[in-house]
Design brief:
Blueprint lengths: L2 E2 L31 E2 L5 E6 L2 H10 L4 H17 L5 H6 L6 H19 L8 H23 L10 H35 L3 E5 L4 H22 L4
Parallel strand pairs: 3-4
Antiparallel strand pairs: 1-2
């Protein structure tokens, strides 16, 4: 079935004009100026996420953008491959200790296998990704332990505990930010390498706005603990 070269609508060989846009069609026996094409127009995939945007979102959200990123990229995988997947559940599993590492492994493995299937090379490492997520998880637990063990539960965090908890938190954010940027960089290259699609930048979603607002609250609490520690 041929397609209109201007709008991509399907047309019949007997048609002289496109039913979608009205453009004149060129047949073998015609001398019209607008030819038919045997392929539809390229599909647009709003899957590209600039690394500067990832960095900004991770910083502004105090690292919580990780959850939205897991949801968004898993949704992209589901929509692109038509495979059975549950993006929201996949993101929520990050709250579950240990099990989150298995879901992280599945996340990176699925994309790496997709890239290899399409003949696209990548430097994604499933083992390295899981290791960094483990470091991120351990640092988060250490930060919580410092806070809880030094007045955090009563809301009167000591100066030393506030500094220790903040430094640990910032290191964990740096680790997971690098991880997300590394994986997203590979995804951007993959989406851009596909032949029959046009990869464009994804729009900023309401989820990103929510996590940025959540991050502002987290930054505020962190600064307050540093400025007004318990005596």
């Amino acid at each position: 079935m041929p397609f209109c070269s201007k709008c991509g609508a399907e047309v019949l060989s007997s048609h002289r004009y496109c039913r979608g846009c009205g453009t004149a069609l060129l047949h073998a026996t015609d001398t019209q100026t607008a030819p038919l094409t045997t392929e539809a127009t390229a599909q647009t995939l709003p899957y590209q996420i600039p690394l500067t945007r990832v960095l900004l979102m991770m910083v502004l959200s105090y690292g919580s953008y990780l959850f939205y990123w897991f949801y968004l990229t898993w949704k992209q995988y589901r929509d692109h491959t038509q495979a059975e997947a549950y993006p929201i559940w996949h993101a929520l599993t990050l709250f579950v200790p240990i099990y989150s590492l298995f879901r992280t492994y599945a996340h990176v493995r699925s994309f790496k296998e997709l890239m290899l299937k399409e003949g696209h090379t990548s430097n994604l490492s499933t083992g390295g990704t899981v290791l960094l997520m483990f470091v991120y998880w351990v640092l988060g637990m250490i930060g919580l332990a410092i806070g809880w063990g030094n007045g955090g539960l009563s809301g009167e965090l000591t100066q030393g505990a506030a500094i220790g908890s903040t430094v640990t938190g910032l290191i964990s954010i740096a680790v997971v930010t690098w991880l997300v940027m590394h994986v997203q960089g590979n995804l951007n290259q993959y989406w851009g390498s596909l032949e029959k699609v046009k990869a464009v930048m994804a729009n900023v979603g309401i989820g990103e706005v929510f996590f940025v607002l959540l991050g502002f609250a987290s930054w505020g609490l962190t600064l307050e603990s540093l400025v007004s520690p318990a005596v």
